Amino acid sequence: MFSTEGYQALCCGAGIVRRGDRGVLSVTGRDRLTWLQGLLTNDVAALRIGGACEAAYLTPQGRMITDMRVVHLAEQTLLDVPASLARQLTSKLDGLLFSEDAQIADVSATLSILDVHGPKAPTVVHATREHDAGLSAITSDSPYGVAGFSLFVPANDTDAWVVRLSKAGGVPATLETLDVIRVEAGRPAFLVDMDEHTIPLEAGIEDRTISFTKGCYVGQEVIVRVMHRGQGRVAKKLVGLTLATDGSPKAGDVIAAGDRVIGRVTSAVWSPTLDRSIALGYVHRDFIEVGTQVEVRAANGSLTATVSSLPFVNRRLGSLDRHVEGAEGTEGGEGTEGAEGTDGVEGTAGTAGGNRKWD
Is residue 349 part of a domain? Predict the structure, then answer.
């Protein structure tokens, strides 16, 4: 359920989110990064101990099996994946191990993820540093335009960590509340805005998930062909949509231009910051220009929408720029670049090592 208090914490303070929607796989063995390097889209072999990056795992046809975050520790490499896919991915990846010194296991039952996001997140997380020995890892990045941290904690210690973070000034927030922040940040989610039919270039995630300088990986030929022969042109692209009325679109609603169906909505929320409905959706490449007027055919009638630049709300560096093309009385701002690379803490399995890094 959406929480106003949690939303304010994520925007202006420090919101604590239990990531029950995420699963964790553990890859061990001395060949683990070399093995993953040949499977994933990003340059995971370049990760130092305590480093992290985002990546995708593709079919040979260049379509997504999943996205993930890769966290490299001294004795294991953690893969942060959608929880509903954890068991399936473990089995699939295990079947690709042959002579490599690598092993993969689903540790979602014993290792949980707690996120802390907001301008005050560094202060809140820093205040818990005396308990670092109880962590497997910490990563820091800003996927939603504000400071953010992910704490990999023993599942049976999750409640205690929520209490510690709350005493330090954090405020618990729900996944539904975080989802509003996610859409405002224009960040697509796998199994929501992306699925097994999606090519990463369609979703616009290539800047943070794909290395164009590394060696071969599964699906690379398709990605390279689209980028170099097609100049990155794909048939459809994920765009932001700002609704001109108080209507409420839903995922799956048709997007049309005149009599022509040009796409579908994938995510839709009410934005408290913008005081209107916003959505993410795929449209045909002829309609991706910012300012293009389209129609969303919702259950409660036809809704007028405008293709908008992403993110809808830019919270970076303590500023607040609002992007509402086609709406009167609001300012537009420049878009931001993809999420920064993440830094973790050095450590081995089951310990954070005591060396936190603060950006």
Answer: no
Determine the Cα–Cα distance for residues 195 and 205; give it in Å rounded to an integer.
13
What is the tens place of the pLDDT at every residue in 181-216? 999 999 999 999 999 999 999 999 999 999 999 999
> 320: which 2 tokens?
């607040």
Q: Is residue 275 part of a domain?
A: yes
| Exposure letters 252-269 (e unless 16+ CB within 10 A, then b) | ebbbbbeeeebbbbbbbb
What's the rounded Cα separation, in Å, for the pair 203 and 107? 29
pTM of the complete model beyond 0.70: yes
Report the alpha-carbon distance of residue 296 to residue 302 in Å, rounded: 6
Q: 276-301 pLDDT, tens per residue?
A: 999 999 999 999 999 999 999 998 89
DSSP string over 322-353: E--TT-TT--------SPPPEEE-B--TT--T
Q: What residues contact residue 356 under an 8 Å CB cut-off, 6+ apart? A: 126, 129, 132, 138, 345
Q: What is the DSSP letter of 225?
A: I
315 Cβ neighbours under 8 A, 6+ residues apart: 11, 144, 145, 146, 185
What domain range includes position 277? 235-336
Domain count, the chain: 2
Report the share of the chain in percent with pLDDT over 90. Answer: 83
